[in-house]
UniProtKB/TrEMBL annotation:
Pathway(s) the chain acts in: Amino-acid biosynthesis; L-methionine biosynthesis via de novo pathway; L-homoserine from L-aspartate: step 3/3; Amino-acid biosynthesis; L-threonine biosynthesis; L-threonine from L-aspartate: step 3/5
Species: Acidovorax kalamii
GO biological process: methionine biosynthetic process; threonine biosynthetic process
Keywords: Amino-acid biosynthesis, Methionine biosynthesis, NADP, Oxidoreductase, Threonine biosynthesis
Annotated protein name in UniProt: Homoserine dehydrogenase
Chain sites annotated for binding NADPH: K125
Amino acid sequence: MYRDPVQSLEAPSLPSSATAMRPLRVGMIGIGTVGAGTFRVLTRNQALIAGRAGRGIKMVVVCARSLARAMSVVGKDVALTNDPMQVATHPDVDVLVEAAGGTGPARDWVLAAIRAGKHVVTANKALLAEHGNEIFAAARQHGVAVAYEGAVAVSIPIVKALREGLTANRIEWVAGIINGTTNFILSKMRDEGVGFAEALAQAQALGYAEADPTFDIEGLDAAHKISLLAANAFGMPVRFADAQVEGITALQGLDVTCAEQLGYRIKLLGVAKRRQDGDAEGVELRVQPALVPATHLLAHVNGSMNAVMVKGDASGVTMYYGAGAGSEQTASAVIADLVDVARLQGTHAAQRVPHLGFHADAVNDNLAVLPRAAVHTRHYLRVPVHQAQQIEAVGAWLAAQQVPVLRVELACEKAAPNGMGPQVLVLTDAVTQSTVDLAVHALAAHPAVAGPVAALRVEMLEG
Ligand code: HSE
């Protein structure tokens, strides 16, 4: 009789190979959105996960602020404590899951666990963006793994794709929508006319936003993630401090509607791009609201969904889509990391997939993040003018400033209602940011210009 292999794995008893080995013992700090989801999925899919890992994965101790609340999630069979360090260094723990978030204390717990010879799994992108280089160096020294698939675009296995599936490639760029909260806000504002504050409140209620939502809306969370992706893509250290970061708080609804008129949608993008051309050598590492063509796949990634595109020299463009926030969606990645750790039994540290995809001696410390002035993209400009006919003057002035103008037109009534005065919309060809900045600065003094000029990048991205 035919038996569905997945159904077989869901059978209550463990496969014989999985029962032979001692379970991987997990200590977890934090039982909030990520921690509770991890416990729930681990419990629900216990036999299936053991069948894949080759051994059981068992939560043995949890640290929580409220022990009563923790007990309501994990029951009586898991030890509970208020002391994170006790979990980090617990003699019965093989792997620490850091699910508390934050940077300072989390760094101390993770380093303590590593020094105690424990593997670490975390979805804490802020921690790794700020302290990753130190943490990975300590992990190398102590021969343990630090796994962080849940830190980037939660449900999407993009870290694994970059450092394993695409390992043959010279990566040219990685770009995408990697913050669920801001994508949710932009989608609500565009599709349902919901205001910024209300859309943010909804994202918080759904558990998408960070404890401090400033990280989401100011682009920092996306910058944490793109810094980790850049390190894996290009063999460079984590360079979050050098990233150029712009969020969506200064974005105007007027630019959303004007972009639509031109056939574009605005998305908060993280971009990491290797440049080796006549103008620059290094990496563009940036987060900003940018126009993407309305026909592009990224323009159709809505709500809290994420999507990441990777261009490899051999693979060409590949694209990965999935939930960008959420409890069990993050748990999916955290448990995948736990399974990877469970499978490490008996492997030598030097034979494992390196933390950042490249072995330490192959990491290029000299690969610089390019300054803002060197970034090279197309641009969108919106120039408020006193009278519609001044469109001619604006076009001519920009051309004289060495800005390669592709298209100039007036915003229609639907995009910019009459009370706002005439708005000249400009699309440029690819040009360095320094040229655009100079031109925008000069336009501010132009007699035809009636107010601040809005400038946004345009990303064409293949695919
Ligand atoms: N606050 C994050 C987001 C959660 O909205 O993408 C997942 O990293």
